[in-house]
Amino acid sequence: MKLVIVDYGMGNVKSVVSAMRYLGYDDVVISNDFSILESADKLILPGVGNYAMAMSKIHDLDLAPLLRKLVLQDKKPILGICLGMQLMGASSTEDGYNKGLELIDAKVESFTRSDLKIPHVGYNQIIPLENSRLFYNIKTELDYYFTHSFRMQSDTDIGASNCVYGEEFIACFEKNNIAGVQFHPELSQTNGLALIKNFIEKF
User: Is residue 19 scored above 90 in pLDDT?
Assistant: First the structure.
């Protein structure tokens, strides 16, 4: 199975690759080459940093139309991690209004409570979606590592599992071939490895 991590210059890719290889998936490639992305069995869209800058880099590489084709038309499975998940939505208000990849109907905005410590950093529990593929057969408490200042919201059913940090927000989602996690599974120890394995095996 060929796993391709989308390289647009803003992903914490080394730890993601290490996690996948630890699980026994050796055919992991980091690339922004169109032919390699098209040959992938599954895609990973990582991300750390600023939304506007990330979308600018994606547009500079002309990756947005290709990713939309691969995911929405060809139905190639994709997992977005942290900023990568946010980029899958329609828009973000980080550094002004910025359009996203529009793979799902969701928007990214700042937390509304002024008394919250931002960024949200550390382990927090997930309220899992019933019959979730991402959390399949994970029996322990669902603690995952977060570090983010903006959060995703959606008015439609995108198969969300939520988290509470002063207010409820989307911790992850799974809709058809598309999955996204606001937290870092590659930094979340045993539960994180189990979730990565579930994406690879269940999507």
Answer: yes
